[in-house]
Every structure is written in C-alpha cells, then in structure tokens.
C-alpha cells in the first residue's frame, strides 16, 4: 500500500514538503548545480522516500543519501552542462534500438505529461548485441535528462508537481529465452532501480502496460520480489479492458487511435532489428594482450594510475564473462597504498567519481572508452563483484594513459607501467 505524500501530482508543494526539501538540502555533501537545484527536483527524492518510510528522520536521510549519489553521477556525466538532446537525436532512438514515441504537450488531470510507445518491435537481444552496456546507460541518462527538462518546464508553467504518465502498448510483444535471461539475471531490475528509483525517482509515474498477454504476469511477479515498496503502484498491468481506467482522468482526444482513442497524430517509430554483420566486433589488436583479473564474490580489484599533469587521457578496453561493477575514481594524493590492504578496504564513497559506477556486461560487446584527467592525482579503474554471493567473475582489461605530448603508457594491476606504440593505442581504436 502506498504511503501518504506531503504533496501529490497536480498540486503545488505544501509547506511540509518545502520544509522537507530544505532539510534535505542541509544534508547534501555534493555540489548541486543551479540548473538542477529547484524544489520540485529535490521533492521527487523526498516523495520516493515517503513511499518507503513513515518516520520523518528516515525519509530525510534516505532522500539525501539518494540525491547525493545522483549528484555524483550528474557531475561526472556533466549532465547540467549537457544541451537538451531530443529523442530524435539520441543514438538509442536515432539508431532504432528502442521504439520512440514523443512526449505529448498535454497532460492528464494530475498535471502529468503523456508519453505513449509500443513494445511490439523492442528486442533486448538486439540492444545487448548492438551497443556497449556503458553506452546504453549513458544514452538512457541523456533520455531521462530530456524527460526531466520537459517535466521541469511543465512545473514552471503550472506551478504544480508533474511527471510523465507512460503508457505502453504491449500488443504483439513476444517473449524469448534471451528476454527471460534478462529478467531472471536481475538485469531488468537493476535498470529499473538505476533510473526509476536511484536517479530519477517519480519522474515517470505511473508506467501503464496495456493489452498485456497472460504470460507477462510471470516475469512481473519475478521482478516485483526484487523491487522496493510501491512497485506495483508504479508499474501497472492492464489487459485489453483498459480504456475505462484511462478515461477516468484522460480526454479521449489525447489517446492515440491505435489504442481506441481519437488522436491519429500520436505515432510511435518502431525499433529495427539489426543484421548480424552490423553488430560491433571486438578490437582484434587488443584481444591478445589483455590482463586477466579474477573477481571472487563480493571482491574488488583495481588498477591505480598516477597522473602528474592535467590534460592526460585515460583510456580502457575490457571484456567480461558476466555483469561486473566498473567505474573510475580519483583522489588527489599520490601516496602508495599497500595493495593487499587496499583491496579489502577500498571505498568508492570516499573518492571522487569521474566515470559512472555502473553494473556493466562486456561479454557480447567489449567495453572501450576514455576520459580526460582534468587534474593531477591518483585515478583508479575499479572492478567489483559486489552483487554476487556465489559466482566468480573474470575480467580481461587494458588501461592506458596518454600524456599531453602523445606518449602512451599501459598500466597494470600491480602498479607497473610500460610505454606502448601508437599501433596498440586504445585512443587510436576509439578514433578509427
């Protein structure tokens, strides 16, 4: 059962909501950009906590903790300086990995903007084979940022709390073994947590799946056991008899004709399944020289990279045999840390995140990327098997640092480094 909120959708923020928002601000230990720092954005984190707790202290603490983690992501992805990227320009829609429906300019009775798509053409397998999981995460953050800005505009114009009411037509959606693995492995629940709870809580609410087949209830029940309180209220299932529910607070003029409404202008661009020869291939010049890292359950391994001057480029290439957490972290001192001790006590929370801490799989598509080292200090390429209690993970990795003169050095887990030729440069692979 849902908790009682201090402000509901379609309402101006109550005095109690504003008090809670200001309390959360006092608990922030991360910088918050003016472009993001408004009461509605912070209240969304409060509202998410209100779903799960009754105690005021617990609500404030959870909202502040979740928001602090999100602010770290915002900083390292530079989301506040990012120009607004509409769906049509986002690679995940531009390359037709996902079906695309535009956010409509009208709302329901609770001030929630409408967003319709269809799932008949979606293919989890195609996304997994066609894009690096780090890219898929990044593009979805761009997607949610565009959605946030549309909702912020609605809130600025109306003065009332808004969200996206997401209505998904499940007609023709078919399950396959790959989809079931995606669900049963926890990957779907991870992405749901990452976007709908940890980083953009209450932004997309509710999510209504209409025209569902009976088999959808099987993965739904499985996912529900892994999700926080309020999941069933947020993700709602309807069979073919959904129109009466929609018409309770929607005009039939704002429902697409494909769902039985009277708006023929609302369209969805379908996803396209790519041929096998268009899937990305591993970088053959790096495959044979990757360093093997064994990750037992609950363990962390990292490669330290000391950077003496600003403007260097840190790049990496790795493959995995399953999901692992990966990120790049920074600390200013260049002190040598005892290796055996640091692996047991390495704390990501105490260091600056400079590349997002995401759960990635580089089994089907190997991961390759780079960042600019904007200040001298020690950088850590960190791998973590925190989500597994029983299964080992194996990573094969290469990490390189290119200085301002164009010299490239490879860095190893034991702290050693060696100069390499341009032919083996990861930056060269990225630019080709």
TrEMBL record:
It comes from the Eukaryota. Gene3D superfamilies: CRAL-TRIO lipid binding domain (3.40.525.10), GOLD domain (2.60.120.680). Residues 108-267 form the CRAL-TRIO domain. SMART domains: SEC14 (SM00516). Pfam families: CRAL_TRIO (PF00650), F28H7_8_C (PF25883). PANTHER family: CRAL-TRIO DOMAIN-CONTAINING PROTEIN, PROTEIN CBG07705-RELATED. This is CRAL-TRIO domain-containing protein.
